[in-house]
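User: I'm preparing a small set of examples for a lab meeting where we compare how different chains pack in three dimensions. I only have the primary sequence for this one, and I'd like the structure in token form so I can line it up with the others. Please keep the answer compact; I'll paste it straight into my notes.
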Amino acid sequence: MKSTNNNKLDAVQMLRGIAVLFVVTLHFSSGALHFWNRILRLPAIGLPYLKMHGSVGSFLSFGYIGVDIFFIISGFIMFYTTRTKPGGIAQASKFIINRITRIFPLFYIVVFSFILLFPIILYLGHHENFLTWTMIAKVLSLQWGNTVGKTFLGIRWTLTFELYFYFVFTFAMLFSYKKRIYIILAWIVSLTILLPLFLGIPFNFGNFKLLSANTSLSNFTSLIIWEFFIGGMMAIYYEKIVQIPQKIAAFLFYSWLVCFLIVATNYHLLTSLYFQHHSLPVTVFATWFVLAFLSYQEKLLVLLPNKLIYIGNISYSLYLVHHWVQEITDPIKMFYMPLGLVCSFILAHYSHKYIETRLSVFLRSKLINQWEIVLQYFANRKKNKSKNYT
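Assistant: Understood. Below is the structure token output for the 390-residue chain.
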């Protein structure tokens, strides 16, 4: 796998770029399609919660698969980047500090900037009841729950799953690399299979939760956590994946592409067949794509534009700020999609450059240095105690 100058994996960054384009295009297309279909008076086709229109709308509505691709990539990165790290509290604490300093600074900056600009959003004439103190408290605490739909920074639900797996992986980091996969597997099996069986809850592969969203266990038992594990397995067997014969890899990729075009353009007809948001068929479809892309990457890195790597680099910033931009540009229906996309990319570029790259790295180095001092203090204290006993 080719690497960029900053040692990021090009194929994975391209996958991130494709995934975020799926999600961002989906979100901006919904309002635009509603507007143009009202103008042109085209027949509407009802979908789960986005009333898209025709084959174009059906194709764009399938963009939520980008989230599933993100989760698989996230699991891959966690396992791949820690494959040479020994187990222990030092490495585990560094891992969680790295993850938290990447997620939270930008997230809270976006949240607070949204709150500050909320009067403008009200002036533009929508979401009168959109922002409440209760909602602010939920967002700031990243309160768990399925917030898919029209809620303040609704995409935060994906970050709760990211954080959940971060903490599970941090615990696994206390052990050697070979043991981590078994510890994580035992955890996931216990909560997503054994616990529901014990409680007598039927499996529903068409729903991304096994338990009701009103229960405290709903996120812990979500089947979506398997996507992180799948990504981890791809990282473990990555060397074998890239050695797949190119003819087989090409077949995997192009057969997926054909199936994707068929499914995406007829998605509104397939929802009744459990091809719903973040269901088992979607997980399989996303897994197929990532596996095919990684195995065929040598050719795809030549065929696809390098800009996808750049988009992958800014994907987290783009993922957060595009939702913020949505609320500002929503009233401008005619130019909603192009204006929203342009503004999102500009903001994401500077957000990545000055917040992700600089602020996060600064906070990370400070926290890690302070933590190392704490660990050294306790190590010296333990050493002194052992000397006193002797």
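A couple of notes for your slides: The chain has 17 helices and no strands. Residues 336-389 form the longest helix (54 residues).

User: Perfect, thanks.
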